[in-house]
């Protein structure tokens, strides 16, 4: 009986982790790109990027752009966190 309980625990744990992996993380392809860095340009443009699993505000210099750049925190969360 104990082996069956342990096996059931691992099955449930596997199912739960599969569920979480479909719910948490980037959904928009832009969220999976490297975040836009400050770069070598001198503009001081406040933007939001998706970095390390969360949306963070950064100052962008205006160059070396990727698609991982959002106008607002709400826009980033809507596209990258579901």
Automatic annotation (TrEMBL):
Coiled-coil intervals, chain numbering: none
Signal peptide annotation: 1-26
Keyword annotations of the record: Signal
Cited SUPFAM superfamilies: BPTI-like
Annotated ranges, domain BPTI/Kunitz inhibitor: 31-80
GO function term, MF aspect, one: serine-type endopeptidase inhibitor activity
CDD domains: Kunitz-type (cd00109)
InterPro entries for the chain: Kunitz_BPTI, Kunitz_BPTI_sf
UniProt key word Magnesium: no
Superkingdom of this protein's organism: Eukaryota
UniProt keyword Signal, yes or no: yes
Protein name per Swiss-Prot or TrEMBL: Kunitz-type protease inhibitor 1-like protein
Organism expressing this protein natively: Pseudodiaptomus poplesia
């Amino acid at each position: 009986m104990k082996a069956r309980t342990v096996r059931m625990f691992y099955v449930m744990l596997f199912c739960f982790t599969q569920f979480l992996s479909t719910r948490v993380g980037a959904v928009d392809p832009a969220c999976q790109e490297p975040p836009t860095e400050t770069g070598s340009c001198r503009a001081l443009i406040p933007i939001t990027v998706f970095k390390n699993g969360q949306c963070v505000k950064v100052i962008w210099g205006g160059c070396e752009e990727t698609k991982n750049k959002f106008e607002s925190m709400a826009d980033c969360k809507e596209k990258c966190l579901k």
